Amino acid sequence: MKNSKYKTDLPVMLSPKTATAGRFNLSLKPWHGLLLLGICVLSSTAAYTADDTANAPPFEVLLRWMPLLLKGFVFNLVISVSAMGIGTLVGAALGLGQISLHGSVRKTSWFVTQFFRNSPWLVLLFFAMFLLPFEIKVGGFTIPLPDWLKAIFGLSLPVMANVSEIVRGAIASLPSGQWEAADSLAFSRTQVLWRIILPQCVKRMLPPWMNLYSILTMATVLASIVGVSEVMTLTGQALSAEDGRTDLLMPFYSFILFLFFIYCYPIARWTVYLEQKFAVKT
Amino acid sequence: MDAFFEWFKWLYDDTGINLPFLYDSYDRGRMIDGFFMTIKLSVLCLFFSIIIGMIGAWLQASPLKWTRRFVGGYIQLFRNTPPLVQLYFFYFAIGTMLPKVSNGFGGEEPMLGGFAWAVVSLSFFAGAFNVEIFRSGIEAVPNSTIEAAKALGFSRLQIYKDITLPLAFRVVLPALANNLVNLVKTTTLAYAIAVPEMLYEANQIWSDNVNVTEMMIFMLLVYFVLVGALVWVMNRWERSMKIPGYGA
Amino acid sequence: MKKLLKGSIAAVVFGALAMTSMVVQADVIDDIKKRGVLKVGVKADYKPYGFRDPSGKIVGIEPELANDVAAKLGVKVEFIPVVSSNRMQFLQQGKVDLMIATMTDKPARRKVVSIVDPNYYSSGTNILTPKKFGFKKWEDLRGKPVCGIQGAFYNKKTGRDFGAKIVAFKGTAEVYAALKAGNCVAFVYDDSSHVAKTKSAEWADYEMPLPTIDDAPWGLAVKLGETKFHEMMSGMIKDWHKSGRILALETKWGVTNTPFAKAMNAKYK
């Protein structure tokens, strides 16, 4: 194996693998998740023994609040899926706009993409929260915009910009021969795009798209800063209902970390798997 | 200069566009402090996250199985949990467990304040990505080069520091730049633990003046320029570090 | 084009219909009765006035008051958690019928929602602080870190007039953790919240030592223009004061009877 790598001359550098496509030195299995939960329980009981015995043990308190927190977490997932849906639809259009033949469309799409890509998620979330109206009047109808809906819009803005870049990047990564060959076969531009280029792009776009979804899921907790009843908000409310006991902080926050980990880690694993499967052999 | 500030006061009186951080010296002070706090936070986090990335990548190539596992666990844990919760975990959960120091007026305060925890937490978060980035760069350095260095009597640490890393660094610059840009954007999270960075100060100002729209647009513009500047610098650097004849 | 025209005509007609239906809209009490549910906006992180129990239900003094209203109307009650920044808008857009959410009665707010007289409760601004510091007056806070809630109006006053360094968090949970850890020396907030805190065992070493400032009444509110509902609520508040219901609820949820509640009870008895 070693000899095949440099059989002719000594190369200065080998071609690098993409950073995200790294193999996992540690393959986590389901029992690792249990181990994490165990650590979370142990840490809470350890903190408890150090404390006085007047209060219920932290783990018992956590257990009592767990159903509510899980409900909140499901809400996080709902936000993430909706924001991903909206962001993908608009972002894909924006990405195609970036390769448009019209100069003005291309430039506008590029600018919109860059603007929302360079802005912090939290600022965009604040932006949507405070600047969208509480309701929209269409004719005589009043469509209320509750906070969670605004959070979805706010989070879909950066998703949109990132999807746009993913689409553009995937199209740009295809060899130009594909375009030329299709052109010579008298396909129209729309046909080339939809029948030849995009189908090939899907494979390339899937891993970064899933990566983005995972980042988005983790960003849904930002909605707590603007007051949506998701898992972090509920945790805060639970903690203040328990009179702000400091020994509860460790188990509660560990629990949230744990929830996100068991959701996002499989996605990360799957992304790596797809990346390796779809890897273009060079 | 005063005339310039006065003009904005006039703008507010005349049009209702309220930019108090330009005409009110108290708010101006807050905004400038916030700006420098964001810069300070970003620079420190950039520095430590790169250090963590380099050390982590070195440890990951270690012959010891458990060292590799430990680094792997760290990466997965920090990459797959929300940075905001990490920040809360560090600041509230771990922060309360550390020994306390006297605060100078009869009480005790935690050893590390909000700013220090923000630096620690965000550095570890970005560091987890940097380890992977550096590792991919290290793998791109051919074995022949390493063997040549070994033949010349370099130690493992010397090879890493003087041969592998400088070469790897050039390969990973684009990915690294991307992560560092993300890191600068992530510093806004420090807002949640009351670190007076730019977004926090902006929030204070809009709470006092009820001018959310103006502040929000201003924030977007400032971050756009700040991140844009970083992207530009990284691109310049990338070009100047390019290995002739390698890459596109 | 024709299709578009037809469509837009239809939309306009439909819109106009919807408009007229809004004009002849029935009284909100009828709506509530028809619906069978009274929707009340309450706080969810303000123990003991409105907070969550482990099952996720919102309980506390204000939810109990809301229960009284629902019982009087003969309907079920639904609690919608609100925060300071969205509560008035919820009422305006009809997301809640009634708002009992620790809101300070202010002239500006009376323009936006219909605040019911008399006021049902009152609170002022004070600090929660460890006893060991021995703060006696507001000026003692000068140069020291003081925790607050983001967006609260007294942050600026404490910061500018008394020279404290305000460390603002988004919710009470964060503040309590920070205060316990020593990240700040005091928590500036409503005294009604502090009174309840100092009575719990967890906060035995803490006190509320300063003279309360900015004492202001709380107002519960209905949507502007709902005169019938407004009158009904006004009657209910008087009943609450008269029968000592507020005093009883304070005792039930572990709050020392406040001077305001006592005075109102004496006044309407």
Count of discrete alpha- or pi-helical segments spanning 4 or more residues of chain B:
10
Compressed to H and E, one letter per element, the order of chain A equals HHHHHEEHHHHH
The radius of gyration computed from the alpha-carbon positions of chain A, rounded to a whole number of angstroms, is 24 Å
Architecture of chain B, according to CATH? Orthogonal Bundle
CATH topology name of chain B: MetI-like fold
What's the level 1 CATH class of chain B?
Mainly Alpha
Which secondary-structure class do the elements of chain B indicate? mainly alpha
> Spans of chain A of 5+ residues with little confidence (pLDDT < 50)?
1-8, 19-26
Strand content of chain A: under 5%
The strand order across the widest sheet of chain B is: 1-2
User: Which strands sit side by side, in order, in the main sheet of chain A?
Assistant: 1-2
- The shape of chain B, in one word, is globular
Q: What is the terminal-to-terminal distance of chain A? A: 17 Å
Integer tally of domains of chain B: 1
Taken together, the total number of domains of chain A comes to: 1
Global morphology of chain A: globular
Describe this structure as you would to a colleague.
- The complex is a heterotrimer of chains A (282), B (248) and C (269).
- Chain A contains 10 helices and 2 strands.
- A two-stranded antiparallel sheet of chain A has the order 1-2.
- Chain A is mostly helical.
- Chain A has a single domain (63-277), classed as Orthogonal Bundle (MetI-like fold), CATH 1.10.3720.
- With 248 residues, chain B is mostly helical.
- Chain B is built from 10 helices and 2 strands; from the N terminus they run H-H-H-H-H-E-E-H-H-H-H-H.
- The termini of chain B are far apart.
- Chain C is built from 11 helices and 14 strands.
- Chain C has helices at 2-23, 28-35, 61-73, 87-92, 107-112, 154-160, 172-181, 191-199, 227-243, 245-252, 259-268; strands spanning 37-43, 45-46, 50-52, 58-59, 76-82, 98-99, 114-115, 121-130, 145-149, 165-169, 186-190, 206-207, 213-218, 221-222.
- In chain C, strands 8, 9, 10, 11, 12 and 13 form a 6-stranded mixed β-sheet that branches. Chain C has a 5-stranded mixed β-sheet with strand order 5-1-6-14-7.
- Classes of the chains: A mainly alpha (282), B mainly alpha (248), C alpha/beta (269).
- Chains A and B meet through helix 4, helix 5, helix 8 and helix 10 of A and helix 4, helix 5, helix 6, helix 7 and helix 8 of B.
